[in-house]
């Protein structure tokens, strides 16, 4: 086992500067590893390629200038998406730890980054799976010969329900306050929605059973960790592509498909002057790439030390963006067909989020021959897309907790009971969102808990910690040690300058442009609803400054912060007492000397000097300075 560490020697005792990591190719048998690279790649693909690729990206592209939207999207992809994606994955692989202890290993004072990401995951686990409950309900109803959302002949329909059909190029009936059977099925049969968040009402037991089924499936996907998850993803991560291709082929062969695709891609460069377009591009990158959630760190931690995570990350990022692009053709070809059949402009049939999955697409399916078949294909794809993302988030949380308390949870059946506890807790909280007023609660969680502001806030501190405190050059050396060569230098520029600058600017802009949450552009939430939302958002963001204050106030040593910083900024490892010179009774070495001067034997090669980008917070000693 190679545990080579850069460091200093005093009285025969090594004081490492880098965190001690496991580098054995056979891995830590107690913790587990992926059986092969494909399991890792499919698991990450299943996590990042989710519902947002299908129901969010195509709509944002259409709304924000069509093909012109790719300009800000690609800028954010290369300045934020790929760099942070690689940073988190490489961090997990290098430390072989979950998202909390991984940050502790490289910089203890920023351990709060891990706590912040896991608070977001806890909140995400409770509401994201509710979408699966809705999708399962639609999936089961797809087995009917006549789809229940295709007609007005049901007990939940009102006198305002109108079945829209094409008659000589126009609607057969038009009158004020008319509603479609699709909307009434969604609001009156599925949601049974009340008049506001103040009226939660009764629980929809059918949806509760669907939610229970979703959690049972999720539990057994991850109950044995990577051993079970690595096998499940062979199906859950690949089959949605088959469904997407089937829907794409069917969509582009429909009349009106070309018109829909034209609206999807037709460039409108004038939209680029709108700052909201850039904001949408940035938040889509963070949502779609699952960064700042700790999931990539957790999945990367099960890699072998010398796995080429750089190549994997680049390929996965392009796969994710490519899937979003292709999904747009599948969705907008169907919307173009709807537009032609109903005689409505695209703007009136295009939807985003749950509105696309549970209103727009079901409405289109009713117009197709063999509609139950196409409904089954679509909702089965939605279930699989959501399931992957859900159980990986659960695995991320469990990995973080197990690595945080290995003595407690790495015993027989303890991990399984922990997963069960997480599942039961999340299920019980999720039941609130299946009441008559549950949709309003769901919107609060979706708008605030895992909002762009929370993710951007975490990304700012991630890039600052790695690039300016730990050192971009040092982390780049760690990456080179793992993969055997130095990646594209532009990524370091992004870590140091572009990523924190872009994330900070986008974060501030999101605060300035903040608009209170509404439901369906009609219902206005009460003040306490917004207060609840901000509490959810701040519950994750407050972890980082709170942990910094905690470490500063509890670290050993008295006096100025500068006298304490070796204990709270130096990387930690298994032999923790060796990492802080003050704990070992030594004076902190001079911060002006570079840690790579000692202990690293590398092949001679020409490399740029990046170490001046570090704030010199990790001191080390030249050989001549050893005691």
TrEMBL record:
Coiled-coil regions listed: none
Record has Oxidoreductase as a keyword: no
Residue intervals passing through the bilayer: 40-58, 70-91, 112-140, 203-222, 234-261, 281-302, 314-338, 358-387, 417-435, 447-470, 490-512, 532-550
One Pfam family named in its UniProt record: SNF
PROSITE patterns: NA_NEUROTRAN_SYMP_1, NA_NEUROTRAN_SYMP_3
One CC-aspect GO term: cell projection
Residues that bind Na(+) 1: 46, 53, 288, 385, 388-389
Domain of life: Eukaryota
InterPro entries: Na/ntran_symport, SNS_sf
Membrane topology: Multi-pass membrane protein
UniProt keywords, alphabetically: Disulfide bond, Membrane, Metal-binding, Sodium, Symport, Transmembrane, Transmembrane helix, Transport
GO MF annotation, one: metal ion binding
PANTHER family (alphabetical): SODIUM- AND CHLORIDE-DEPENDENT GABA TRANSPORTER 2, SODIUM/CHLORIDE DEPENDENT TRANSPORTER
Protein name: Transporter
Organism annotation: Equus asinus asinus
Name of encoding gene: SLC6A13
């Amino acid at each position: 086992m190679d545990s080579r560490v850069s460091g200093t020697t005093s009285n025969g005792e090594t004081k490492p500067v880098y965190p001690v990591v496991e580098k054995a190719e056979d891995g830590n048998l107690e913790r587990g590893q992926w059986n092969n690279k494909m399991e890792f790649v499919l698991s990450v693909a299943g996590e990042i390629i989710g519902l947002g690729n299908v129901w969010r990206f195509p709509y944002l592209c259409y709304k924000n200038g069509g093909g012109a939207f790719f300009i800000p999207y690609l800028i954010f992809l290369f300045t934020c998406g790929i760099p942070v994606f690689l940073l988190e994955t490489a961090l997990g692989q290098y430390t072989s730890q979950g998202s909390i202890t991984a940050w502790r290993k490289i910089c203890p004072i920023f351990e709060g980054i891990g706590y912040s990401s896991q608070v977001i995951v806890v909140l995400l686990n409770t509401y994201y799976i509710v979408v699966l409950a809705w999708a399962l309900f639609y999936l089961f109803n797809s087995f009917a010969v006549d789809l229940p959302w295709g007609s007005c002949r049901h007990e939940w329909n009102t006198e305002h329900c109108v079945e829209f059909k094409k008659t000589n190029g126009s609607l057969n009936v038009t009158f004020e306050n008319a509603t479609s059977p699709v909307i009434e099925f969604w609001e009156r049969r599925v949601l049974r929605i009340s008049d506001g968040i103040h009226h939660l009402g009764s629980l929809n037991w059918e949806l509760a059973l669907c939610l229970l089924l979703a959690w049972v499936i999720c539990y057994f996907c991850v109950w044995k960790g990577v051993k079970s998850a690595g096998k499940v993803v062979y199906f859950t991560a690949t089959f949605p592509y088959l469904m997407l291709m089937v829907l794409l082929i069917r969509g582009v062969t429909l009349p009106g498909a070309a018109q829909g695709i034209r609206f999807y891609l037709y460039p409108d460069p004038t939209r680029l002057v709108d700052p909201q377009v850039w904001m949408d591009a940035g938040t889509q990158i963070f949502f779609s790439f699952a960064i700042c959630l700790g999931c990539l760190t957790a999945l990367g931690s099960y890699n072998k030390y010398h796995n080429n995570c750089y190549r994997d990350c680049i390929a996965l990022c392009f796969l994710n963006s490519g899937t979003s692009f292709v999904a747009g053709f599948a969705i907008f070809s169907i919307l173009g067909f709807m537009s032609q059949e109903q005689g409505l402009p695209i703007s009136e049939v295009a939807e985003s989020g749950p509105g696309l999955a549970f209103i727009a697409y079901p409405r289109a399916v009713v117009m197709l021959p063999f509609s139950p078949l196409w409904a089954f294909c679509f909702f089965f794809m939605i279930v699989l897309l959501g399931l992957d993302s859900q159980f990986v988030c659960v695995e991320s949380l469990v990995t973080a907790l197990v690595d945080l308390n290995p003595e407690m949870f790495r015993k027989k059946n303890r991990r399984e009971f922990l997963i069960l506890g997480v599942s039961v807790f999340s299920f019980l909280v999720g039941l609130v969102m299946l009441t008559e007023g549950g949709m309003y609660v769901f919107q609060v969680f979706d708008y605030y808990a895992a909002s762009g502001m929370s993710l951007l806030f975490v990304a700012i501190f991630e890039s600052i910690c790695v690039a300016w405190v730990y050192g971009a050059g040092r982390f780049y050396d760690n990456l080179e040690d793992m993969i055997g060569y130095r990646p594209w230098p532009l990524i370091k520029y992004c870590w140091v300058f572009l990523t924190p600058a872009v994330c900070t600017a986008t974060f501030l802009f999101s605060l300035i442009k903040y608009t209170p949450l509404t439901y369906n552009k009609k219902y206005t939430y009460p003040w306490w609803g917004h207060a609840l939302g901000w509490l959810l958002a701040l519950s994750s963001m407050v972890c980082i400054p709170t942990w910094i204050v905690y470490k500063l106030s509890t670290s050993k040593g008295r006096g100025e912060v500068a006298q304490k910083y070796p204990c709270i900024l130096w990387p930690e490892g298994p032999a923790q007492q060796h990492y802080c010179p003050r704990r070992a009774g030594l004076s902190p070495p001079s911060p002006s000397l570079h840690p790579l001067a000692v202990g690293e034997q590398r092949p001679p090669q020409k490399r740029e000097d990046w170490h001046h980008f570090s704030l010199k917070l990790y001191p080390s000693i030249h050989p001549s300075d050893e005691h």
